[in-house]
Amino acid sequence: MYEPSVVVRKALPDDIPKAADLIYRFYLFNEEFDPAWAAVEDRSRAEELARNAVESEREILLVAEENGEVVGVARAVLEENPMLEASPLAVLKELYVKPEYRRRGIASLLVEEAFRALQEAGARALAAEFPAQNRVAKSFYEKLGFRAFRSVYIREA
């Protein structure tokens, strides 16, 4: 069930600072599950991610807004792999909803709207990235019909 008072829309240039703050929070939250997800201290990099997504034809940045306040964000990109029939693949890179707005369907709405928009750009499937140890995210995506697709392993220096 989605909150009728919440509007999900493409981010505008004026939304970049607020969206960037939520993207940064996404990494702070996820580093609790795996230190390799720790965000750099330079918050301007999150703003650069948000700005690039707003200006790109291969990315999308959505915001969820309630009463003029940005309460959630989703950033997804199109990835090409000519060997996969599912290409181009939309990959949800960041999804974050402020804690006080969770459990109201806002994240689900952001995911559905991101996929719809990227399908219009040619995406044939949607994947989501998050730390392997984040059981909350795993459960959330499974409830939306996602399944394990690929594994990425990391070895730190």
Describe the structure.
The protein is an alpha+beta fold and 157 residues long. The chain has a single domain (6-143), classed as Aminopeptidase (3-Layer(aba) Sandwich), CATH 3.40.630. It has four helices and five strands; from the N terminus they run βααβββαβα. It has helices at 16-30, 44-55, 106-120, 135-143, and strands at 6-10, 59-66, 69-79, 89-97, 125-128. α1 crosses α2. The termini are far apart.
Task: Give a summary of the structure in a few sentences.
The chain is α+β, with helices and mostly antiparallel strands and 157 residues long. The chain has four helices and five strands; from the N terminus they run βααβββαβα. It has a single domain (6-143), classed as 3-Layer(aba) Sandwich (Aminopeptidase), CATH 3.40.630.30.
Give keywords.
Aminopeptidase; 5 strands; alpha+beta
Structural class assignment:
alpha+beta
CATH architecture: 3-Layer(aba) Sandwich
> Spatial order of the strands in the main sheet?
1-2-3-4-5
Rough outline? globular
Total helical elements: 4
Helix percentage range:
25-40%
In the CATH hierarchy, the third-tier topology is known as Aminopeptidase
Number of domains in the coordinates?
A: 1
| Count of extended strands | 5
Residues in β-strands, percent: 15-25%
Q: What is this structure's SSE topology?
A:
Layout lengths: L5 E5 L5 H15 L13 H12 L3 E8 L2 E11 L9 E9 L8 H15 L4 E4 L6 H9 L14
Parallel strand pairs: 4-5
Antiparallel strand pairs: 1-2, 2-3, 3-4
